[in-house]
Amino acid sequence: MSVSEGVRIALRALAANKLRTALTMLGVIIGVGAVIALMSIGKGAQQQITERIRGMGTNLLFITPGSITQGGVRSGQGQAPTLTLEDALAIADPSNVPTVALVAPEITTGAQIAYGPTNTFTRIIGTTPEYQEVRNWRVAEGEFISRQHVDARSNVVVLGANVAQTLFGSDPEASPVGQTVRINRINFRVIGVMEAKGAQALGNQDDMALMPITTVATRFLRNRTTRGGTLVNQITVQVAEASAMEETVQRIGELLRQRHRVVQDDFVIRSQEDLLNTANQITGTLTVLLGSIAGISLVVGGIGIMNIMLVSVTERTREIGIRKAVGAKRRDILIQFLVESTLVSVLGGVVGIVLGIGVSRLIAGARIPGVAAGTAGLPSVVTPDAVLLAFGVSAAVGLFFGIYPASRAARLNPIEALRYE
Fold first, then answer.
1. Which of the chain's ends, N or C, has fewer CB atoms near its CB within 10 Å?
2. pLDDT at 389
């Protein structure tokens, strides 16, 4: 018996029990739809995080405090009080590291910011004019911090889009630029509003306020090293060319070890690619986990197929006996029932693919409170590999779970089958 003939016989058998066939397919439909929907969420999250990291700028290195050992006790990462503003100035010096294009040190704290009766608690970042170029961020209104502001320790602030909306959103005609806000009971003049960038894995980028780094160091955080240096939380370095990244890391490491007079690094240098690779590993693992969880329902659907096929073999025992009596071989019976189980699984897989794509689009378009501020819903990307994987697994499930019922049907003794009532 050919496969095409087996398909025709299988279609007639399935059509004879439409409700039972539909219920059997339902397990596969749900399994395939769940696999595609959940994998699309994982892929969407991976794509979103990649775009956010790429959007931070190009050829970036992130230098943060490391750990130190005192009295035989090693502190945690980020606890070493040794990374300073003076280190950033040294890195920016072309005579020290000629491959560096721009350097932006940062001091981060939190503060209450108020305008009239409205107030909000937000992240305060003290930095330099190079920040917006290094981080690929532009001012939507007004101007950014200038070198004069840094040198004069001016009481000026550039608001993030969310902070500006919170403080001034009630009056759409009023421009935040030129207004005076109070931060920790100190008056600051608003000189600009940053363009909106939206939420990311580490928080909302628009929920912040930027000031001259010298202003933050003198009015909010007066953290100094034993040598009088101004402590910073991070130094972001933009390398002139991507090919010089490794050389730049080595030169900066040597310079900082020399400046800090240490043998063991008390700082950590991470590249943009390191962050991207780490993020991709995490989201990749999440995608596999989500797909595996959804795949359990496919196994359940496969067990349902096996159950129904065993019932079908029992119901059609007399038919199998007649077919064998008129010359059908064991191989023909085996192919007939294998084709039938695989067809149920494949048809369910096709419907499941359509369902999964539809659910993914609904997830991407729905507004889900608390999931990601500033976005329409969960990120969702349907990729061809997810569709092929789900379809291939569904066909394999039908084939695998159809083997035992088909073998049982093929082994039936024709005489005993004809006697079966």
1. C
2. 81
Residue pair 386/33 in contact by the 8 Å Cβ criterion: no
Task: Using the predicted structure, report yes or no on whether residue 153 has a pLDDT greater than 70.
Answer: yes
Q: What element of type H or E holds 319?
A: helix 317-325
When computed from its CA atoms, the radius of gyration of the chain, rounded to whole angstroms, is 33
The conformation of residue 228, written as its DSSP 8-state character, comes to S
| Residue-level pLDDT at 371 | 42
Compute φ and ψ for 70, nearest 5 degrees. -130, 125
- Average pLDDT, stretch 171-176? 72
Nearest-angstrom CA–CA distance, 371 and 375: 8
What's the mean pLDDT in 158-166? Answer: 92
**CB under 8 A, 24+ apart: contacts of 413-418:** 414/320, 414/321, 414/324, 414/325, 415/321, 416/321, 417/317, 417/318, 417/320, 417/321, 417/322, 417/324, 418/318, 418/321, 418/322, 418/325
The amino acid occupying position 219 is R
The answer, yes or no, to whether residue 365 has pLDDT greater than 50, is yes
Tokens at 419, concatenated = 């006697």
Give me the chain's average pLDDT, please: 81
Q: For residue 59, give the nearest of 246, 244, 239 by alpha carbon.
A: 239
Give the CA distances from residue 98 to residues 3, 113, 129, 245, in Å, rounded to whole numbers and listed in that order. Answer: 70, 40, 20, 12
pTM comes to 0.62
Model pLDDT, residue 96: 92
Report strand pairing: 139-142 vs 156-159: unpaired
88 backbone dihedrals φ, ψ, rounded to 5°: -60, -40
Q: What are the helix (H) ranges across 175-271?
A: 213-219, 245-260
- Separation in Å, CA 240 to CA 99, 138, 236, 348: 6, 20, 13, 54
The 10s digit of each residue's pLDDT in 247-289 is: 999 999 999 999 988 888 888 888 877 777 777 788 788 778 8
Alpha helices in 56-111 (DSSP H): 85-92
Exposed/middle/buried for residue 27 (C-beta within 10 Å: 0-12, 13-18, 19+): buried
Contact indicator for 160, 167 with CB cutoff of 8 Å: no
* Residue 269, H or E segment: strand 267-271
Rounded (10°) angle between helices 18-55 and 384-410: 150
Beta-carbon-side half-sphere exposure of residue 29 (alpha carbons within 13 Å): 14
| Predicted confidence (pLDDT) at residue 306 exceeds the cutoff of 70 | yes
Helix axes of 317-325 and 330-365: crossing angle, nearest 10 degrees? 130
What is residue 340's predicted lDDT score, i.e. its pLDDT?
Answer: 82
What SS3 class is residue 386? helix
